[in-house]
Amino acid sequence: MQSPYLSFMNYVLQNSRRGDIQNVIDTIDQYGWTKQWLMNIGDRKGKILDDAIRTRKPKTVLELGTFLGYSSLRMAGQLPNDASIISIDINSQTAEIAHTIHKHAGVENRIKIIIGSSENIIPQLNKIYHIDSFDFIFIDHDGSLYLSDFMLLEQYGLIKSGTMIVADNVIYPGAPNYLNYIRNNPNYITKMYESTIEYREDIRDGVEVSVRK
């Protein structure tokens, strides 16, 4: 495994308690604030994600953008053991670290990481993974893909009435096309929650929370 995030992985494994999800999350946050900036949702915006998960109580979750496994860990920590989380990421090296972190936290059997491009995997989710639709979708990969992947999810019927969609980084780096689409679409009720970017005090960001009518 060759990755610039090996030191991150070792730090988390050495400084957090095995099987304690919240302690692993807290250790990742500590690393992001004090050691090296990380592009996960972070502790502040993470509370917005937590609240959304608690509100929707999903059984089926899709995450676009696994990165180092932080947000899927947060979601798993809010959900019962029978909830299913599928996370898609194109980077096999960071996905491997994410799986190691998930295993350390004791949730590796509840989070399925699929490696590949979202545009190739989304059309296969129904046929290969037998998923009709998702209760909850978390979008946190490349901002330029937010809208095209969202429309692909719509096209394949993976968004249903009641599906909650949470999109991170909608102000910074930004996803203007996605925001324009979701805010002007009569099929959705949507609201932005302002914050700052992860592990920084000085850059404004926001999380868009939307629900399909």
Automatic annotation (TrEMBL):
> What Gene3D superfamilies does this protein map onto?
Vaccinia Virus protein VP39
Which Pfam families has this protein been placed in?
Methyltransf_3
Q: What is its EC number?
A: 2.1.1.6
Alphabetical UniProt keywords: Catecholamine metabolism, Methyltransferase, Neurotransmitter degradation, S-adenosyl-L-methionine, Transferase
Source organism superkingdom? Eukaryota
- Please name the GO terms of the biological process aspect recorded for this protein, alphabetically: catecholamine metabolic process; methylation
**Gene Ontology molecular functions:** catechol O-methyltransferase activity
**Which SUPFAM superfamilies does the entry mention?**
S-adenosyl-L-methionine-dependent methyltransferases
Note the InterPro entries from the entry.
SAM-dependent_MTases_sf, SAM_O-MeTrfase
Q: Which family is annotated? A: Belongs to the class I-like SAM-binding methyltransferase superfamily. Cation-dependent O-methyltransferase family.
Q: Which PANTHER family match?
A: CATECHOL O-METHYLTRANSFERASE 1-RELATED
Please give the name of this protein. Answer: catechol O-methyltransferase
